[in-house]
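Exercise 7. Predict the joint structure of the components listed below.
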Amino acid sequence: MSFAIPEVEWSSNTLDKGAGEDSSQLMKTREKVLRHATIPLLLGGWKNLMVDEAFEISFECSEQGWDGYDAIPLSRDSFSNASRFIYLLPEWAIQPDIIPSPDGWISFEWRSKNNRIFSVTPENEILIYAASLGPKDMDCGRVSFGSGLDKLPSTITRILAEYFGRE
Amino acid sequence: MNESSSSEVRPEERISRYILNGRYFKEEAGEIKAEAFLPTKPKPELQERQTSVYRTSDLEETNIWSIGDQHVANPEAKRFILARGDLPAKNVFSQDLRIVPLPFTHPRHANIVNWPNEESNEHRKAIAILLAKEARLIVK
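Solution:
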């Protein structure tokens, strides 16, 4: 069965006339959608694309055993933690891959051309990270990821700056 | 290797991890993601985290895929084998992990065990990165 989706034209003529709460909410949504769609990629629009991908992953991995084994469904927290992490990513770092984790979180992985790997998983209030930065150079740990943060913890930024900057 | 063997895993044996999620590998780069090797949380009846693998030394390619299709994939749930990561058992042992034969579901089935404990997510992640880095991606 298929449904036809009515085409809604969000012209200001229609929305601006409303005075109620619904109309105001619609206006806000319209602004959000327009902003989301029109930010140039170089100015951070890529972050919006990444949030979209994280959302897609949450949807794809919402059932027990989504990895073919015993993976836990991704929680709502996993998406909100991932989104918050994405918006704190520095513009100068290369873009990570987004990967669902069998423990029900969303992870981010950076790889450099010389096979250095850095993986970060935003869990509730903490970032779990591990990096393979050279043949005998491993680093791993956890850092606070409290809700008040307006930038990434320095441990994460330092590894990104040293090994995963854009050329 | 004997087909019905529960013998100890030898360091030079090839171990295969079947991959059923397309986000766990990048074919063009030959990359396997660390998450493909991460052990899942133990079920109440199990004592510890495990990563399910198969001992695939001396098997033809078609037989390796056939084990995955018959014993790991779940077509009803639309979960199919897409790829696998192969690595020598010695690379697992070098991370202080063990490979325990568990030949009840299939004679070549085994589990990677001895992962760092529940509070050590970061250490499990670090080990999974090393396994992923050393594994060879074979796409079906």
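Discussion. Residues 14-139 of chain B form one domain.
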